[in-house]
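sorry for the late reply, my laptop died twice this morning and i had to redo everyting from scratch. anyway the thing you sent over, i finally got around to it. pasting the sequence first so we're on the same page, its 279 residues, then the predicted structure underneath. double check i copied it right bc i was rushing
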Amino acid sequence: MCAKWVKDKENKALTLLKQLEKSRVYDDTGNLKGWSLIESHDYFAAIESYLEFNKEIPAYEYSSLIRSAIGEVSKTTKPLDCKSVLGVITRKENDYIEGDEFEYILVTSISCMYSEIFKKMPNIPPGFKFSKSVPKKFDRDKFKSKWHQLEFGREYDYTIVQIKVTARGVHEGALKALDKLDLLRGYWNFCLNYQKVTLFSRPFSTPINMVTRGPFHTLHDKSGKAASELYWYDDNYTQNLHGAGKLTEIQPAVQKYRRLLSKHPYVGGSSEIRGERVD
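ok and here's the structure:
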């Protein structure tokens, strides 16, 4: 299935496209600079809600597809209308789906002190590696000054996690890796929280989950070089250091829930759930 307009929304999309067409701004050489409308960001968001994309396109690509398609049409003599924009979006969808995949490694951390138990722990999906510190091959120096400006703290004694994925770009790579990490943390925290009796007596500023993500995440190629100038961070990060000992106690339960979830008929969730086979 290729992109299409949601039923009864095409006229609304056309109205917004015509408003954008009138507000185009060009530089002295005739190149498109942007749009003069203050509300242009809202217009793009509304147009996104009027479209149904190919199911193979991840949701985080929708916005860039729409903006690049509208921008491309705006640089031509074609009218900025639903047909021309949809044609470009469909082509860009196909380019994305047929694009090459690359190997990436996300470097992040979890709120457990490092222990040798991570080397022997069962029920760890392929692609994960744990360490006490960031291996020297990973180039993170360029990001450190920016992290200090965010004032979200630092990784303290958190366990460093490397997550290997294949993806068609840096955004997909980072989000696929974080998805894999969140699935693993979900198993762990569900089993840990199940043992707790007084979950609701904790201070509001203290996370309920024992295993939370560290504040910063960077994406690298397999040589360790930064794959992008971008980095990712959690703006609601709270320091949450714990020992890792309890993780060994819950592994039988983790194995049970991984097996149950891998057999569940639900297919709309994490790709890691759909692709995970548990014997």
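The beta strands are 4-5, 24-26, 32-35, 51-52, 102-113, 128-131, 158-167, 216-220, 232-233.
thats about all i looked at so far, will dig more tmrw
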